[in-house]
Structure formats: structure tokens, C-alpha cells
Amino acid sequence: MDPKLLEILVCPVSKTKLIYDKNSQELISTAANLAYPVRDGIPILLEDEARVLSAEDTEAYRKQK
Predict the structure, then answer these.
(1) pLDDT tens digits along 20-63
(2) DSSP 17
(3) Domains located in the chain, CATH noted
(4) Lowest-pLDDT choice from 4-8, 15-19, 61-65
């Protein structure tokens, strides 16, 4: 994921910054508890495509910030 692109992308639901998880190829919104997929290097920032994060997952990502 291009760091410059990551700087300007925000969650479409919460309008907050996203965290890129390279292992799962997802953009994480801890504010909305959603994980957006990245397919072939393209972020899919659609709420319908996002995976809902568990409370434990969200907390783990918050600690990484």
C-alpha cells in the first residue's frame, strides 16, 4: 500500500484515518469497527464489503497505533 495514499484515505463511515494491515490485506477503521479489503492493491472502501471487527480485534489495532 502506497504510504501517500494511506495518508489521504479515511473511513467512509467514521471519516477517521485507517490502519493498513499488511498480513490480512485490509484497511482497519477502529472508530467504526470495520475492516475494508484491499484487492490487487486497490482499497475497497464500501461499507457492504467491510468485515465487522470484534471488540478484541479493534482493541488490538488501537494498541498498535
Answers:
(1) 999 999 999 999 999 999 999 999 999 999 999 999 999 999 98
(2) B
(3) 3-64 (2.20.25.10)
(4) 61-65
Determine the 3-state secondary structure of 56 from DSSP.
Answer: helix
Which grid coordinates belong to 22?
499488511
Q: What is the pLDDT of residue 52?
A: 97
How many other CB atoms are found less than 10 A from the CB of residue 45?
19
Nearest alpha carbon to residue 28 among 41, 40, 2, 54: 54
Residue with cell 472508530: 31
Question: How many Cβ atoms sit within 10 Å of the Cβ of residue 18?
Answer: 25
CA distances from 12 to 21, 37, 54, 56, 63 (A): 18, 13, 19, 22, 22
CA proximity to 55, closest of 25, 34, 26: 34
Residue listed under C-alpha cell 488501537: 62
